[in-house]
Amino acid sequence: MHPPGADTVLVRHGDLNTKSNTVKRYMLDFLLENLEAVLADRSVAGNVEGNWNRPLIHTTEDAVEAAAAATADVFGVVSTSPAIVVEADLETICDALAETAHASYDGGSFAVDATRADKRLPFTSEDVARQGGTAIWEAVEDEFDPEVDLEDPDLTFGVEVRDEAAYVYLDRLEGPGGLPLRSQAPMVALVSGGIDSPVAAYEMMRRGSPVIPVYVALGDYGGPDHEARAIETVRSLSRYAPNVDLSVYRVPGGETVSLLAETMEEGRMLSLRRFIYRIAEQIAEEHDASGIVTGEAIGQKSSQTAQNVAVTSRATRLPIHRPLLTRDKQEIVAQAREIGTYRDSTINAGCNRIAPDRAETNARLDRLLEVEPDDLFERAEAAAASAERIEL
Ligand SMILES: Nc1ncnc2c1ncn2[C@@H]1O[C@H](COP(=O)(O)OP(=O)(O)OP(=O)(O)O)[C@@H](O)[C@H]1O
């Protein structure tokens, strides 16, 4: 919902404000470009104005809701509001609130949520809340029996007063927060198409790192559906990163996977993980990427016990980032649904067969090295070299 005539989106960012001015300038430039990119990608008309604390999207009333929704998907954005812009003057603000109430209030309780950024103004946020509340009341009392409820109102009238103008709005769409995409170095994201890895890739992008998605094809142990769901989850992620190339590296791993399944029993999942990490490292080197991202969570699977993670991590010199490390599965599933990757992740791909009946949970590197193929890493390097890149 928006006030009548709203043609502007107020964009709020969070972590950017904890930065020095130099860093904030650097990050803000990325944020503004990313706001423009998401509007263009979703064919929503709007011009971005790069204000220091509150970037604005200038659009039309017809497009204002779509512009607020699109920009609320941009990393670094805490929230957006479709708003009308009025002079930062108490009387004008009260008139705007009265007009908004006429158009939008439909009975029930209301509140005014007012903030004032410029302390030099001759009125306080309490003045705005009190006098604005009265203006709303008077605007609707002939038709309704209004009630003020500051705790849990049915309708909240938002007012943000800044030095250049005041903004009046009704809705606040929550954004992902974090930092603008591309403000951190790129990372390779290992995407298996399961529920977890797309969420992990999303989380890393949320902190500013563009990801280079890598999928290792498992041959007879994976199949076309397994591959398709990995690609589809990345496609779903691409709506959050329209100006980043998310083409997926598809690495042929089938032969090595078969070898591991035929020659190893308990530790095969760990050697497979080491094979996959080494592939990621190779691709990371080509892109000067600074780390590897996985969807692992401590204890979620036997291959992810604390001891096993310690052993598998030794396959690469790059840091392995596990944004979901301490999360419960239910939380991850809820986030996958929210960001739109869950459905693709749950296509039945029949890919569990590689797991042995009795899995290792307490690995030791020396014991694993005795039983895994000596040329595991050479195989990984060769596989990475013959990867193909799949455009979305
Ligand atoms: N075939 C693969 N290609 C790319 N990365 C993979 C592959 N298999 C596993 N990984 C990476 O290793 C992590 C742990 O592997 P695991 O076997 O638990 O994955 P999964 O359950 O198939 O998928 P997810 O962890 O995405 O739910 C994954 O989160 C992913 O980052």
UniProtKB/TrEMBL annotation:
Record GO terms (molecular function): ATP binding; CCA tRNA nucleotidyltransferase activity; tRNA binding; tRNA-uracil-4 sulfurtransferase activity
Broad class of the protein's primary localization: cytoplasm
Catalytic activity: [ThiS sulfur-carrier protein]-C-terminal Gly-Gly-AMP + S-sulfanyl-L-cysteinyl-[cysteine desulfurase] + AH2 = [ThiS sulfur-carrier protein]-C-terminal-Gly-aminoethanethioate + L-cysteinyl-[cysteine desulfurase] + A + AMP + 2 H(+); [ThiI sulfur-carrier protein]-S-sulfanyl-L-cysteine + a uridine in tRNA + 2 reduced [2Fe-2S]-[ferredoxin] + ATP + H(+) = [ThiI sulfur-carrier protein]-L-cysteine + a 4-thiouridine in tRNA + 2 oxidized [2Fe-2S]-[ferredoxin] + AMP + diphosphate
InterPro entries: Rossmann-like_a/b/a_fold, ThiI_AANH, ThiI_fer, THUMP_dom, THUMP_ThiI, tRNA_STrfase, tRNA_sulfurtransferase_ThiI
Occurrences of domain THUMP (ranges): 65-172
Pfam families found in the cross-reference section: ThiI, ThiI_fer, THUMP
Compartments, record wording: Cytoplasm
Enzyme class: transferase
Annotated metabolic or biological route of this protein: Cofactor biosynthesis; thiamine diphosphate biosynthesis
Any one Gene Ontology BP term: tRNA 4-thiouridine biosynthesis
Assigned EC number: 2.8.1.4
Keywords, ordered alphabetically: ATP-binding, Cytoplasm, Nucleotide-binding, RNA-binding, Thiamine biosynthesis, Transferase, tRNA-binding
Residues that, per the record, bind ATP: L190, V191, R273, G295, Q304
A GO-annotated cellular component: cytosol
The protein's role, per its UniProt record: Catalyzes the ATP-dependent transfer of a sulfur to tRNA to produce 4-thiouridine in position 8 of tRNAs, which functions as a near-UV photosensor. Also catalyzes the transfer of sulfur to the sulfur carrier protein ThiS, forming ThiS-thiocarboxylate. This is a step in the synthesis of thiazole, in the thiamine biosynthesis pathway. The sulfur is donated as persulfide by IscS.
Annotated family: Belongs to the ThiI family.
Protein name (database record): Probable tRNA sulfurtransferase
Organism per entry: Natronosalvus rutilus
